[in-house]
């Protein structure tokens, strides 16, 4: 019984000694490493920063912002919201500019400028206040109603609506400022013109247009004398119409009258339509200081635009105003005790007044130098020989057209300068008031033609320079590049060869800005038929073309010397062909 405690005591002492020994023994490296906590497991992981948005991503966001802003504007949502959306679009495009380069950067800069312009205009409208915005909206609505009535030939209703829109635009001008006020003033002036034309101009314009249409359709079947009479009636209708119109409608009516005179080739004699009432006399209204219809380079709007659209005479080639024949001077009956006649000659014969250093001839004509005035507003200054313009003189027509140059037997014939009412001008030789021979035509668009002229149109050899940078030198037929010539297009393409109606047609050679060259046949401006195309990379194709595409049998050569022979379709090789290696 006494042994048990002793044994237990010995076991306890051994256990204590082993524990102490283990405490003094350094731990094994592997065990230490295994038991040591891993710092990575106890510390939080930091995610890498995302890359900045790319140029395409920022451009896409900016385009989306632009779309939202434009949609809000088209839906006439509140101005405050529209301004905020364009603010966002401007910011997005600014971020895109910072991240893009090259063409993408240029595109972003253009879009930024457009968005900024739209933002500024809306911000100005917002600053003008709700009354300005409401007045603009109401005036625009009235103007659109008037245009609709005019297009449906409800002229009286259109005139009334135009007058109402004129008053609303005037109210808008009073309630707005800045560009909004200027816009309202311009549209008020245009509404005034459109209302006047709807009431007084449109009905006679329609009559003249209808008569001219019938005359064109039946003229070939009429005897010469009857055709001349009908032409005089048509010109009279257009001239009467011009006296009752304003703005571009008046100019168009006069151009139509002049076109008839040019086709007829004889002076105008007032010939009313049989059975027609005399034209209404319209009191002259004060002319606006600036009218949108008269602004050069801008399309007519409202009633003037509708009248312009209804006409069929082309506007690009301005006809010369017919030369007004001079009336013979009528010898006044002298008073019994008249004083000696002064040196200054001042006499009126019919609708013609002579003022200057003239003398009266035995046949009741006048000779000398001075000024001749007609009641229709035309004025001539220069020499007369037996009441006919002769020598170098200048005439200014009431329409705004003028001519200064040589006269032969009362006809504008010889060298001179003709400035047409539509802004075109010609300097060179003329025959009876019409450009003919050699000269330079400068159009209102600043396009210019130099060369041969026939009946007022480029015809023969000449060169033409467009404002776009396009140039042509070669043959012309009735105002169209046709024949052989050289054309340099605005996009840099250079063509030499045959043309028809202004387009490459026939055999020719086209050099592209990249240096690529096509030589062969063309049709309506595109490679068509047989031709060769050489790329600057060294590849070349010889064979058939259709509408600008490789189409038909042909051979494609690679710079390596290999080639493919076979059939092409719509610019692609087909299964009907074979590749031939160099040296085979």
What would your notes on this structure say?
By secondary structure, the protein is α+β, with helices and mostly antiparallel strands. Among the domains are: 55-128, Up-down Bundle (Methane Monooxygenase Hydroxylase, Chain G, domain 1); 133-275, no CATH class; 480-584, Histone H3 K4-specific methyltransferase SET7/9 N-terminal domain (Single Sheet). Helix content is 40%, strand content 28%. It has twelve helices and 22 strands. It has a 22-stranded antiparallel β-sheet that branches. A hairpin with a 6-residue loop joins strand 7 (402-407) and strand 8. Helix 7 (130-151) runs parallel beside helix 9 (178-218), helix 9 runs antiparallel to helix 10 (224-242) and helix 9 (178-218) runs parallel beside helix 12 (302-310). The longest helix has 41 residues, at 178-218. It starts with a helix and ends with a strand.
Sum this structure up briefly.
This protein has twelve helices and 22 strands. The longest helix has 41 residues.
Please tag this protein with its features.
584 residues, 22-stranded antiparallel β-sheet, 12 helices, extended, Methane Monooxygenase Hydroxylase, Chain G, domain 1, Histone H3 K4-specific methyltransferase SET7/9 N-terminal domain, alpha+beta
Largest sheet: 22 strands, antiparallel
**Total number of β-strand segments?**
22
The number of helical segments is 12
What is the terminal separation in angstroms?
117 Å
Helical percentage: 25-40%
Give start-end ranges of low-pLDDT stretches: 27-36, 280-342
Strand content: 25-35%
């Amino acid at each position: 019984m006494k042994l048990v405690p002793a044994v237990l005591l010995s076991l306890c002492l051994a256990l204590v000694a082993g524990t102490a020994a283990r405490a003094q023994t350094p731990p094994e490296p592997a065990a230490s490493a295994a038991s040591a906590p891993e710092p990575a497991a106890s510390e939080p992981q930091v995610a890498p920063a995302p890359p900045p948005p790319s140029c395409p991503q920022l451009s896409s966001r900016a385009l989306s912002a632009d779309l939202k802003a434009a949609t809000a504007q088209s839906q006439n949502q509140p101005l405050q919201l529209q301004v905020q959306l364009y603010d966002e679009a401007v910011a997005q495009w600014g971020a895109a500019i910072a991240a893009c380069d090259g063409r993408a950067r240029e595109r972003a800069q253009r879009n930024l400028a457009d968005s900024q312009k739209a933002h500024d205009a809306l911000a100005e409208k917002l600053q003008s206040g709700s009354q300005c915005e409401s007045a603009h909206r109401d005036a625009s609505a009235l103007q659109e109603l008037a245009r609709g009535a005019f297009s449906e030939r409800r002229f009286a209703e259109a005139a009334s609506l135009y007058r109402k829109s004129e008053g609303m635009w005037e109210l808008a001008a009073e309630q707005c400022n800045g560009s909004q006020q200027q816009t309202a003033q311009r549209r008020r002036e245009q509404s005034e013109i459109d209302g006047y034309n709807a009431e007084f101009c449109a009905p006679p314009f329609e009559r003249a247009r209808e008569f001219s249409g019938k005359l064109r359709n039946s003229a070939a079947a009429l005897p010469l004398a009857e055709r001349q009479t009908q032409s005089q009636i048509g010109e009279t209708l257009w001239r009467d119409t011009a006296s009752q119109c304003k703005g571009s409608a008046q100019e168009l009516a006069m151009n139509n009258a002049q076109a008839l005179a040019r086709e007829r080739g004889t002076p105008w004699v007032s010939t009313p339509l049989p059975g027609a009432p005399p034209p209404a006399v319209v009191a002259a209204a004060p002319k606006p200081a600036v009218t949108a219809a008269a602004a050069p380079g801008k399309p007519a709007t409202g009633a003037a635009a509708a009248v312009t659209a209804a006409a069929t005479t082309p506007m690009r080639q301005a006809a010369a105003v017919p030369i007004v024949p001079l009336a013979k001077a009528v010898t006044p009956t002298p008073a019994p005790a008249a004083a000696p006649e002064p040196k200054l000659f001042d006499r009126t014969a019919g609708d013609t007044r002579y003022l200057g250093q003239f003398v009266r001839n035995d046949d009741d004509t006048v000779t000398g130098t001075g000024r001749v005035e007609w009641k229709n507003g035309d004025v001539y200054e220069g020499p007369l020989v037996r009441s006919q313009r002769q020598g170098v003189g200048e005439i200014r027509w009431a329409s705004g057209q003028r001519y200064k140059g040589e006269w032969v037997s009362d006809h504008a014939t010889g060298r001179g300068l003709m400035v047409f009412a539509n802004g075109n001008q010609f300097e060179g030789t003329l025959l009876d008031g019409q450009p003919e021979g050699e000269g330079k035509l400068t159009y209102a668009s600043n396009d210019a033609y130099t060369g041969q002229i026939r009946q007022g149109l480029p015809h023969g050899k000449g060169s033409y320079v467009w404002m776009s940078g396009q140039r042509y030198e070669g043959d012309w037929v009735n105002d169209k590049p046709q024949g052989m010539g050289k054309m340099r297009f605005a996009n840099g393409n250079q063509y030499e060869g045959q043309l028809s109606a202004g387009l490459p047609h026939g055999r020719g050679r086209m050099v592209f800005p990249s240096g690529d060259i096509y030589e062969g046949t063309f049709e309506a401006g595109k490679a068509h038929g047989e031709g060769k195309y050489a790329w600057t990379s060294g590849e070349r194709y010889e064979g058939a073309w259709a509408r600008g595409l490789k189409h038909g049998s042909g051979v494609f050569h690679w710079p390596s010397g290999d080639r493919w022979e076979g059939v092409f379709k719509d610019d692609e090789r087909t299964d009907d062909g074979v590749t031939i290696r160099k040296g085979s």
